């Protein structure tokens, strides 16, 4: 069965973006980039990866899931309506329609939990939950792995790793932790 991995950058105080969705304080350069990319190849927008010379082939995922706000980061200023052309892209939204140029991106108002359960039954590689915090909270019981790029910054407020939700505590078992000179700590966990 395929696994769902929540792979995301996060601040020391648990935010994946600032109060207005900004994430520019997360380190995009440093000694952490190549080793993490080697493990999670294909997790950058297609055009960006190609521009910096990172191959998107042979990564651990063939599907990426996003909430609307995560998807909309590339709109309209960045013109990334089809950001991960090398992956099957699913965007969950109740209120938004597909923008121009988004061919290849599947927009749905379907139940995320049922969608993930159906995806897990399919053949293929892993499923990447790219964001955001509200979608992660909805899918908390379906997440099999956490892969966290913990950045040495405090945001103080913003979009939490998991939005508030009434659910029982869940335990995770660490599988690896690596700290880099850049200050980024890369921590991976599986459901205990």
UniProtKB/TrEMBL annotation:
Pfam families: RibD_C. Residues 4-185 form the Bacterial bifunctional deaminase-reductase C-terminal domain. One of its GO terms (biological process) is riboflavin biosynthetic process. SUPFAM superfamilies: Dihydrofolate reductase-like. It comes from Cellulosimicrobium protaetiae. This is Dihydrofolate reductase. One of its GO terms (molecular function) is 5-amino-6-(5-phosphoribosylamino)uracil reductase activity.
């Amino acid at each position: 069965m395929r696994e769902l991995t929540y792979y995301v950058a996060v601040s020391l105080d648990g935010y994946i973006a600032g109060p207005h969705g900004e994430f520019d304080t997360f380190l995009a350069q440093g000694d952490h980039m190549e080793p993490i990319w080697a493990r999670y190849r294909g997790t950058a927008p297609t055009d960006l990866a190609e521009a910096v010379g990172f191959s998107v082939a042979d990564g651990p995922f063939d599907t990426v899931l996003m909430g609307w706000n995560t998807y909309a980061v590339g709109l309209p200023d960045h013109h990334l309506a089809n950001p991960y052309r090398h992956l099957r892209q699913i965007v969950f939204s109740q209120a938004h329609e597909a923008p121009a140029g988004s061919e290849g991106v599947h927009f749905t108002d379907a139940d995320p939990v049922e969608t993930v359960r159906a995806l897990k039954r399919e053949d293929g590689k892993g499923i990447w939950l790219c964001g955001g915090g509200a979608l992660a909270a909805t899918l908390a019981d379906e997440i099999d792995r956490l892969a966290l790029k913990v950045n040495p910054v405090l945001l103080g407020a913003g979009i939490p790793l998991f939005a508030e939700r009434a659910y029982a505590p869940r335990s995770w078992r660490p599988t690896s932790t690596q700290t880099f000179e850049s200050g980024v700590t890369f921590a991976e966990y599986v459901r205990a």
